[in-house]
Amino acid sequence: MKKAFVIILIAIVAATSAFAFKFNSIGIETGSGFYVSADMDIVDNLDVYARIGYSGAFSFSTGAQYRVTDFKIDNTKVDFKPGAQFNFGFADKLFNFSVLATLQFSFETGHLSAFLRPGIGFGLTSQKIAEDTRRTSTRFAWTVETGVAFLFK
User: Which residues pair with residue 1 across a beta bridge?
Assistant: First the structure.
């Protein structure tokens, strides 16, 4: 459990240091739960996001996306952004952690942005089932998330 707290501390430091950069948008996301998210631009084509919400337990996530290319569907430019996402979930006697490789497809219209972000990876669950007994398991993790955000342009 100490390793989990170290990982959480590192993720919090990384996410809070990202707020020193350009704040890009705030929005809502659904898929594996319901989240409020914030997106920051670190450098050209690299976005970092943080989100907080509920997915069967109190949950927060952080991730990064790098815009590789874009393509057009009719007259709308769709960005293609591979990346990674780290999820943390807490409930009574339960801790969840997962790491996902993600692939985000997003587009912008005026002050609104929308995206679709599928992801696959692995997860770790630790659950206290008795006073001195804890069950820990690993699992295959996947998600398909969608969201909309208001852009600060």
Answer: none
pLDDT in tens, 66-122: 999 888 888 888 999 999 999 999 988 889 999 999 999 999 888 999 999 999 999
Which residues on neighbouring strands pair with residue 94, listed in sequence order?
91, 127
pLDDT on residue 32: 82
| Integer Cα distance of 143 and 32 in angstroms | 6
- Residues 6+ positions from 65 with CB-CB distance below 8 Å: 46, 47, 49, 81, 82, 83, 102, 104
β-bridge mates for residue 27, sequence order = 37, 149
Catalogue the E-assigned strands of the chain. 22-30, 34-43, 46-54, 58-66, 69-73, 76-91, 94-109, 112-130, 133-151
Q: What is the C-alpha to C-alpha distance for residues 26 and 17, in angstroms, rounded to an integer?
A: 17
